[in-house]
Amino acid sequence: MEKKPVLSVKNLKTYFYTEDGIVKAVDGVDFDVYQGETLGIVGESGCGKSVTALSILRILDEKGRIVEGQVLLDGVDLTKIEEQDMRKIRGKDIAIIFQEPMVALNPVFTIGDQIMEAIMLHQKVDEKTARNMAVDLLRKVGIPEPEKRIDQYPHELSGGMRQRAMIAMALSCKPKVLIADEPTTALDVTIQAQIMELMKELQKEYGMAIMLITHDLGLIAENADRVVVMYAGKVVEYADVKTLFNDPKHPYTWGLLHAIPRLDIEQTRLYNIPGVVPDPLHFPPGCKFNPRCEFKEERCTREEPQLIEVGENHTVRCFFWQKVDEAKKRKVGEFV
Amino acid sequence: MSAILKVENLVKYFPIRAGVFKRVVAWIKAVDGVSFEINEGETVGLVGESGCGKTTIGMVLLRLYEPTSGRIIFDNEDTTYFFMPALRARSYIKRTYVDKFNALLKELGSKDAVVNALEGVDRRYAEMFFSEAKSSTGKFCSLLLSNMDEKRKQFRKNVQIVFQDPYSSLNPRLRIKSIVGEGPAVHKMVKGEKELINKVRSVLEDVGISGDYMYRFPHEFSGGQRQRIGIARALALSPKLVIADEAVSALDVSIRSQIINLMKDLQHEHKLTYLFISHDLSVIKYVSDRIIVMYLGKIVETAAKKDLFDNPSHPYTRALMSAIPIPNPNIKKERIILKGDVPSPVNPPSGCRFHTRCYMAQEICSKEEPQMREISPGHWVACHFAK
Amino acid sequence: MRVETRRTLRRLLRNPSAVLGFSLLIFFTLIAIFAPLICPPQSYDPYMIPIVTWDKTPQPPSEGHPFGIIDGRDIFYGVVWGTRTAFKVGLTVTLTSTLVGLVIGSIAGYFGGWLDEVLMRITDVFLSIPYILAAIVMTAFLGMGLDKVMISLIIFGWMATARLIRANILQAREEQYVLAAKALGVSDFWVITKHILPNTIFPVLIQATMRIGSLVITAAALSFLGLGAPVGYADWGALLNFARNWLLGASGEALRYWYAIVYPGTAMVLFVLAWNLVGDALRDAFDPRLRG
Amino acid sequence: MLTYIVRRLLLLPLILFGLSLIVFGMIQSLGPDRLLAAYVNPGVLDKLTPAQLEKIKQKYGLGDPMMIRYLKWLKNTLQGDLGWSLVGKQPVRDAILSRLPWTAELALYSIIPVVFVGVWLGVIAAVNRDKFLDHFVRIFAVVGWSFPDFVFGLIVLMVFYSILGWFPPGNLSLWADQVIKSPEFRRFTSLVTIDALLNGRFDVFVDALRHLVAPILTLSWLWWAYLLRITRSSMLEVLTKEYIRTARAKGLSERVVINKHARRNAMIPVVTVGGGMVIQLFAGTVIVEMVFNRTGMGSFTATAATQLDYASIMASTLFYSLILVLGNLVIDILYAVVDPRVRLG
Questions:
Q1: Number of helices and strands in chain C (H, E)
Q2: Helices (H), A46-171
Q3: DSSP for D160-223, written as a single string
Q4: Residue D190: left if φ>0, alpha if ψ -120 to 50, beta else—which one?
Q5: Where are the beta strands (DSSP E) in B66-105?
Q6: Is A250 helix (H, G, I), strand (E, B) or coil?
Q7: Closest to B3 in 3D by CA, of B57, B39, B34, B45
Q8: Which of D8, D23, D26, D154 to mutate to test the interface with C (most CBs of C within 10 A)?
Q9: Lowest-confidence region among A210-219, B294-303, C167-176
């Protein structure tokens, strides 16, 4: 069955024009997000995953610019519409939650103020209705005593509660797409489990699509339906979650999966991806991963690979993806 | 195997000052009666969520914070009083040793009986007290307090730390050579500039950084490389115990495995003992031989790695394990979702500190504090219901 | 050259106001150095403006007296030698008071406790007298003269530095590299001098640069009030004091005495501007966080 | 919030105590002869009998140990006996009371344009960062900040008085001065502008205003520049904060983001740093009143300093310091009002 994506990103390129040069933070990213599904975007710091999110909403800082590509929401290209029309989409059709709720919430306004603001802006209701709606939302995201909490300032809440308030704010207009940018990174694991559970429940209830941006492969495995792996501003692998974890084809994905310490299996030694995450100002020529790749050949340093279809809904940006299969046979570490 | 570090009943409270006169209105009970041992050559993992006191333990062990009470024995020597002002040190020695020895003497009758009744450090100090110091408190104190500077230096040399943040842990205005060479220079381990350079070069190469980089500044390195430099700084003193406080938490996934592997290799080469502090149970599992789980200033469970993972016995340990996402979509595990937030360490819950969030709490839990019990050899749990 | 240094330098050179600031500063420095060549001194004290005529009424610029004459004295001479006065006052007061603030702030910040409390309350007391007023009062008590003005400005000029350095030290004390140094067994003294001060000194230097301008203004204001430099001393403020008296009595006689204000006034504004621009530029270059 | 204010209030006497020590110390440094002149009208000093002289010495504790002398001085000061003013040729207290309204009027009227224009320009500059307007405003600010108040004042005087003849120096024109001194003119507030309106003397009001414009312009110019700079950099910093991004992500218009979310936060440092500076504006009257030949606290202080009228100098110091300390208290409270983290923390 061919489903139609709610949001699809096509060949998105976002560059930052800094005084040191052009930073190609996002350099050709494609993916689709489907209703009721979770798309995981995973990568290390500086790979462009957060910039992708900000580009979709067009809230980049002044140095950043979308130079190419399309962001289609129900067929409308968001990169082309007027700023004032875009404003009607932000917070209403696409909402976002950030990593650090402490800094993402305005310290001088109460939680209630900040939630009601979004409600009143997009739903044209009076203050009293908005307040009632905000209380309901807070209750829904599991904040105890919402009538009291609504008049509190962010610094009076714990980290977990703040993130719940952030979620309440993001959900206030029942968005079609919720972008969660490292939503639990700043939280403790037991709180992280609560928040992820909450997001799953709310996704079921609202039927929205979630874009889960994280560096944590565990979160991806447990929550995502499809996964985009990013490296140095590009998508290097795109597949559904089981395929990706069971049968990774890109050397980077494969390396990452072997580099993380895991609870579910015994590991004798972690795989080393050598070298460092490249500096976005000085990306290597050819395949961006080539200096760290153990399968690289001469071609990789010259030519940039394109995304290749290697299976059903499974694309990889690598010339020599078959080599990874050989490596799997070598059994570096145990792998289920 | 012998214990290189023995911590007994360690307590660290921080005052909260408030009000008009900034009086102490409450105490943050960051660490509240913690005892454990670390054996030579092993890696002990200390795991817990933010606010459980794990970082405080590290800082207290290093004596960057003075302990509120408790005893820290390192390398068969009581080091608790090493960094106290003289008067406090004296009162500590009198309280901890002299009073105890005298009381025992009264009870047992003879000095030999007292000595024989004790073991370890206590026994050595008792012998010293009765023979060398001739039962005089003043003399005993002077004995223990002699050569204090030397002892402090020795302690500093033997216990080192690797910090979490690869950015703020290196002084941005110093070259790598000064950062790594500062320790050996302070401890006069090297003579002259040439030896120092050789030392720095060899330590840097140990951690996988070319010695040619020693004249660079920290900002010229990436996060992972900085962390290597931080490790080199600690290693340069050839310490016996290295405390790694969230040493890999701030690093990217691919860099993290490099550093973990490096630390394991270094442990082999240099016969190091690690106290590995982290909030990440998967990292702890990978690196540790023995694991201590903390919750709100207390140890709730401690066991050898295999025992802990085969048979997690404290409900908190189980919840923690189930909360960690597994990077394997084929496994659908039962998840324990804990209620609410971690309570404040200022007013920890009565009885068992975990009872407010525990899924198996009963009446007794809020009334009575569970004591550590050994449920199988080396596996200790502080829960009323652990079997 | 280090990447960072190069980037900083580039940032400085690309900023037109920084270039203007530095050029002005160089210009004034040259004038100060070559003052004896530009205007050869005619009495034993080169800082006293020679009296060229006994006629007190101001005279407009003429050959030999390009900036005119006021109170019988050559304005050009006063402006040129006044540059030296401005440098002397600005640099001496800034350096000394910064040093005082540095010591007091370091002690308060590093040792903390009651010492900190006492020092900070003393700072509060000194801050409770408005700066210009404190300078006026102190000078009145010490007696007039430029040296007395400088002493007053130093006595009431160290507090900002002390507070800044204290705040920075409190912050730096918790930095991991400071803790690491302590764990290595480095002594307190070395922790302060090697690890803490070098990391807090830049904001202090920038603050000091930015203060020079307002210090020169304050000193000149005292001279303007007749409390600073003695009559006839080569000081911009004192020159402007002459001008004020003539201006107040000159309603309707537009622009008659303009030269008495414009030349010393311009010198002063440009001098202060130079320091302010340089201070801004340094702040922008070294502390991008504060860029404004 | 309450403890915060109480703590501030409790520090107040401490600071005032320290201040009184400094002031007392300065007076004592004068030596007995000049000291006596600071207390008593020198004109009558010669005519006093030894017994009367002794009584005065007794009152001011001139022969007593330091401690007692300090206490006596403190007692006299608190009772309003501030000594004899040479400049005013009257007791210092009367001299100050008669001059205070003029200065108060000047300072109060100056604060309004400073705050509104300064903050407004700062926000505009920040929002239009690196555009023409921003550059223009910044140049204005840095040049303004480099202008010594007396130089600027002299230029204002030259342009608006010497050339245009609009705004004369002084407090009032001669005729207006006579009007307000006449018995029919009732003093309600001692502020001339307000009193003139209340008395229905619009001509006097206009005259007073004419004399106020130039000094107000001079006083505000400098602080505009300063407040503008603080507001701009504070605003720029706030605009990089993540909650601004959140606000934009909600779909709020740029106007709401700036005026609601950014400005409120940007005001926090402006209140503390900028507020402190606005109080210094009071001290700025010393120069400005001298430039424009106005009678008031400022010119009183400056004249006292040049004529070595110590009693008046000390009293003025106390007066200005009191303003500064109380003003800072107000700012602390304002700060708590703006920032809920302080208010509730």
A1: 13, 2
A2: 49-57, 83-89, 101-104, 111-123, 127-140, 146-149, 159-171
A3: IIIIS--S-SSSS-HHHHHHHHSTTS--SSS-HHHHHHHTT-HHHHHHHHHHHHHHHHHHHHHH
A4: left
A5: 69-74, 77-78
A6: coil
A7: B39
A8: D154
A9: C167-176
Decide if pLDDT at A287 tops 60.
yes
Ordered strands of the A209-214 beta sheet: A94-97, A177-181, A209-214, A38-42, A226-231, A234-240, A314-316, A308-311
Residues C15-50 have pLDDT tens digits of 788 889 999 999 999 999 998 888 887 777 888 888
Q: How many C-D residue pairs are in contact by the CB < 8 A criterion?
A: 158
For residue C53, the SS3 value is: coil
**Which of B182, B217, B230 faces C186 most closely, judged by CB atoms?**
B182
CA distance A158 to A145: 14
Stated as kind and residue range, the H or E segment containing C74 is strand C73-74
* CATH code assigned to C1-291: 1.10.3720.10
CA distance C215 to D294: 25
- The dihedrals phi and psi of C76, each to the nearest 5 degrees, come to -55, -45
Q: Which residues of chain C have pLDDT under 50?
A: 1, 288-292
Residues of D in contact with B22 (CB under 8 A): 7
Region D104-119: what's the mean pLDDT?
A: 85
Q: Residue A226's beta-bridge partner residues?
A: A39, A240
CB C140 within 8 A of CB D310: yes
Question: Tokens in use for C93?
Answer: 């007061």
pLDDT digits (tens, 9 = 90+) for D293-343: 888 898 899 888 888 888 888 888 888 888 888 888 888 888 888 888 777
The residues near C22 (Cβ < 8 Å, ≥ 6 apart) are C12, C274, C277, C278, C281
Neighbouring-strand partners of residue B238: none
Interface predicted TM-score (ipTM) of this complex, two decimals: 0.82
Q: Pick from B222, B327, B341: which is nearest to A191 by CB? A: B341
Pairing of β D84-85 and β B273-278 = unpaired
Distance from CA of D217 to the nearest CA of C (A): 18
Rounded CA-CA distance A198/A142 in Å is 8
A49, A219 contact by CB (below 8 A)? no
The verdict on a CB contact (< 8 Å) between A91 and D341 is no
Distance CA B338, CA D157 (A): 75
Burial A290-310 (b: 16+ CB within 10 A, else e): bebbebbeeebeeeebebeeb
Phi, psi of D335 (to 5 degrees): -55, -45
CA distance A174 to C107: 57
| Residue carrying structure tokens 């809904």 | A313
Q: Which H, E and C letters describe B219-238, residue by residue?
A: HHCCHHHHHHHHHHHHHCCC
Q: Are A233 and A26 in contact (CB under 8 A)?
A: yes
DSSP type of residue B338: P
Q: How far is CA A40 from CA A239, A251, B102, B155, D198, in A?
A: 10, 19, 68, 48, 73
Tell me which chain D residues have a C-beta less than 8 angstroms from the C-beta of C141.
Answer: 26, 29-30, 310, 313
Chains that touch C (3 or more CB pairs under 8 A): B, D
The pLDDT assigned to C147 comes to 87
Give the pTM. 0.84
Residues sharing a CB contact under 8 Å with residue D79, sequence separation 6 or more, in sequence order: none
d(CA C66, CA C68): 6
List Cβ neighbours of C54 (8 Å cut-off, separation of 6 or more).
C72
| DSSP labels, D303-317 | HHHHTT-HHHHHHHH
